[in-house]
Amino acid sequence: MAETVSSEPPTETATPDVATSTEIAPIVSTRRFAAFREFWGYFSKNRGALIGLIVFALLVFVAIFAPFVAPHDPDDQFRDFLLVPPAWQDGGNWQFILGTDPLGRDMLSRLIFGSRFSLLIGLIVVTGALSSGVILGLVAGYFRGWVDVVIMRVMDVILAFPSLLLALVLVAILGPGLVNAMIAIAIVLQPHFARLTRASVMSEKTREYVVSARLAGAGPIRIMLMTILPNCLAPLIVQATLSFSNAILEAAALGFLGMGAQPPTPEWGTMLADARQYILRASWVVTLPGLCILITVLAINLMGDGLRDALDPKLKRS
Amino acid sequence: MLRFILNRLVLVIPTFIGISILSFGFIRLLPGDPVDVLSGEHTMTPERHAELLHQFGLDRPIWQQYLDYLGRALHGDLGVSLSNHHSVMEQFLQLFPATIELSVCAMIIAIVLGVVFGMLAASRRDTWVDQITMGGALVGYSMPIFWWGLLLIIVFAAGLHWFPVQGRMDLAIFFKPTTGFMLIDSLLSGQKGAFLSAVQHLVLPSIVLATIPLAVIARQTRSAMLEVLNEDYVRTARAKGLREGRVTAIHAFRNALIPIVTTIGLQVGTLLAGAVLTETIFSWPGIGKWMIEAIGHRDYTVVQGGLLMIAIMVMVVNLVVDLLYALINPRIRIQ
């Protein structure tokens, strides 16, 4: 393969290339479809992963359509209904199915709107950590030398700190708030992506298809992003799923410690911290937000396990 | 072996320098003037500002400031707390045993139960035992531990009154600490009920802190065992007629140890991060709670010193784990 490509000067291939590419396109798309079917075959066999996927899809639905699903506005204070217990308990009220908080706000509506924050936090943090981590990993693994040493030592230093503590300190520098908490968590999570990408790049770099791409005249950026990266995706997808749930947990922990989202934002961790003093009088104000965090994180981790099993060739063989 | 140790020690140096730069840079990265941050005075004359600038050494080149900081840190001087003017190092050493005691108890629970559950799941692969233990492990792994702690308090402390809600010792019992480890001190004090009280105070926080490491160790033990149980030497051991328990516990487990030890080593960071939350929930007077309070009070010299000490601790533990591998697996030594 390397020889055939290298023997063709890249400038003269314009016309024959068009002809072949139109023939190749349907083959490639059916191959992709077949690969997806194989992946889905493994994934759907895993009952836990399917349950996780369904719960996650439900959460996404609820988060997107929160204003239509929620019975009340999350910030509306019903002054005559402070700390009403859930409907099925003594003194409950079907107007507030999951009860109200100390300020008379409907718990269900706040939890529904809270799903928006958690999912958005996960999405933004993973996107940030993934893109910066992948770029650093690609550069380190492709160029090696002192660039590699500098990047990886910095990653080592970040990993030397317990993640929550480093995130806390970064928030102390940046100032408390949801956006800064997300930046801090993304910084803390990105070394994992950088390490994974670097390791994959180093093992892929010497493969024939990369050498042939280089001989065909592809520049380093094209080789890194178009040739090597698609072949390192599987572990990155699994890591991204795990980081998604980690980001939600860490953001909730920061919220709980008063360094994340600030009240009255209906973020689950912040809600929990806000209501902590009522823990003995009205346990639902503490149990329900935590349960939502657990269910969300569990669903994502179930999906992550399914993805890992479906994408890991070593397990496929056995 | 000596060469391996030396190699590994040399690798620690750049990480240490990075850690110290980060902790040195922390105060300079904070918004506002470092003089204001370090003095806690917000309205001062330009003369006073210049005086303090000189006193803190902030008027010198940055690299000199860093070397100064490093030199002092290496001699155990981490400055004084901005809020109570006590030595940061002394405070750290005073609170450190509480965190260590809690972490060690949590780690013992996590390792013992994690390995047992993991081996159980692996030896009964695809049965209900496997599914329940691994389902439980996944729930543990997904647990927001600050919530888990509050739940345990609601049920076992406030509801059933089995365990106390907070602290390390019953307020009615008093003795002078000698080692800082409550379990040992309470025994040394000879007071009736002191040891029992120390144990009771430890139970809930240890369970909370152990949860995530336990789940991770159980999952890792299961997968490491499954990998090894397919190996030829395990089949040979079975063919020799050895009992299954012996095959699993001795032939398979010893070879599954390396990934398990790696995982245990990696959990130390998780444990220290978890300690921040656990200590806050249970008002446990350790490093984690101290750091959170320092961040809350803007006591930045404490945050800086604590950050450095914790990172050094994680680094040293990782080093020890690496050396342990070499002890378990001769192949690593030779590489």
Class from helix and strand fractions of chain B: mainly alpha
The proportion of residues in beta strands of chain B is under 5%
Distance between the termini of chain B: 10 Å
Class per helix and strand makeup of chain A = mainly alpha
In quaternary terms, these chains amount to: heterodimer
Alpha-carbon Rg of chain B, integer: 24 Å
Largest sheet of chain A: none
Low-confidence stretches of chain B: none
Q: What overall geometry of chain A do the principal axes of the alpha carbons give?
A: elongated
Number of helices of chain A: 14
- Overall geometry of chain B comes to globular
What order do the SSEs of chain A take from the amino end to the carboxyl end, as H and E?
HHHHHHHHHHHHHH
* Tally of separate helices of chain B: 14
The end-to-end span of chain A amounts to 31 Å
Instruction: Summarize the amount of helix of chain A as a percent range.
Output: over 70%
Characterization of this structure:
The complex is a heterodimer of chains A (318) and B (335). Helix content of chain A is 73%, strand content 0%. Chain A is mainly α. Chain A is elongated and about 75 Å long. Residues 1-20 of chain A have low confidence and may be disordered. With 335 residues, chain B is mostly helical. Helices cover 76% and strands 0% of the residues of chain B. Chain A binds chain B through residues 48, 153-154, 156-157, 159-165, 168-169, 172-173, 175, 245, 249, 252-253, 256-259, 269, 272, 276, 279-280, 283, 286-287, 289-291, 293-294, 297-298, 301-302, 305, 318, and chain B through 14-15, 18-19, 21-22, 26, 29-31, 135, 138-139, 141-144, 146-148, 150-151, 153-154, 158, 230, 269-270, 272-274, 276-277, 280, 291-292, 295-296, 300, 303, 307, 310-311, 314-315, 318.
